[in-house]
Amino acid sequence: VACLLIMGTFTLVAVNANGLLKDLERENEMLAFVEEDFADTAILQKKLEAIPNVASVTFISRQQAMEKFLEDYPEEEMFRDLDPEILRDRFSLKIVDLERISQTKAAVKAVDGIADVNAAEEVAGGFITLRNVATVVCVALIAILFLVSVFIIANTIKLTTFDRRDEIAIMKMVGATNGFIRWPFVYEGFLLGLFSAVTGFFLQWALYEAVARSVATNDTINLITIVPFSDMWTNVAVIFAAAGMLIGVGGS
Questions:
Q1: Which site in 35, 41, 102, 203 is 20 to 30 Å from 249, CA atoms measured?
Q2: What integer is the mean pLDDT of 142-163?
Q3: How many helices (H) and strands (E) does the chain have?
Q4: Is 192 exposed, middle or buried (0-12, 13-18, 19+ CB in 10 A)?
Q5: What is the pLDDT of residues 193-235, one digit of tens each?
Q6: CA dihedral 156, 160, 163, 169 (to 10 degrees)
């Protein structure tokens, strides 16, 4: 139960971390600035939408860009009287795969009518590194805990076998086969794994909901999004049951 609970917790942390990183990836945008003398922005938008790895393209006029700037920096009084004409029309591009952001930036810059492209490649690289590190750490911890669980079950069955050594000796004397003696222990390991999976699942559910409520209470700015357990409970139940039975039978 303890090992399944720890494995489940790390897996759910990995799922939420991956979901959070995907949300951050979707929020990461690339700005493509239009040349001053280029008038047909509709055709330009279609060209940008046709570029591979571009999820969406939104046109932002000079006036909209100025309004957004003043909204983001309301304390900057000196910029309130600036003429929007000093800015450029631009397109905001959402990227599908951040790992290909450099190639996408080059393709956007090569489009006729685009003067410059602003892409936070360092930030994108940071997201990718963080996601990869989190995945490797969680997979390594889950693998180690899986082996520990097998070792625990194996020792439990070994102790049970040792405790019943006299009964086993008597059964051997009256002609019992190895399989006849062995299968009850394998069945016992199966039941231990199944019982642990059921118990661990409900404990995991309670723990997850408690943590989710705590995060929702303390995260007043909605920085962290927790995946609802109701969206994952069937997968968690199946994985717990499969892991419990596999560890129980394999350990036995």
A1: 203
A2: 82
A3: 8, 4
A4: buried
A5: 899 999 999 999 999 999 888 887 876 556 667 888 888 899 9
A6: -140
Confidence (pLDDT) at 80: 63
Note whether 90 and 34 are within 8 A (CB): yes
Amino acid identity for residue 63 in this structure = Q
Helix (H), strand (E) at residue 91:
strand 90-95
What's the average model confidence in pLDDT over 23-30? Answer: 72
Residue 19 near residue 225, CB atoms below 8 Å = yes
- Greatest distance between any 2 Cα atoms in the chain: 102
CA gap 143, 244 in Å, rounded: 14
Residue 176 is classified by DSSP as: -
Across 107-124, average pLDDT: 82
Please count the other Cβ atoms lying within 10 Å of the Cβ belonging to residue 91: 24
Range list of H helices, 28-164: 41-49, 62-72, 101-109, 121-163
What token pair was written down for 99?
């790992």
* Close Cβ partners of 61 (under 8 Å, ≥ 6 residues apart): 89
pLDDT tens, residue by residue, 43-71: 888 888 888 888 888 888 877 877 777 77
Q: Which two tokens stand for residue 209?
A: 């909901």
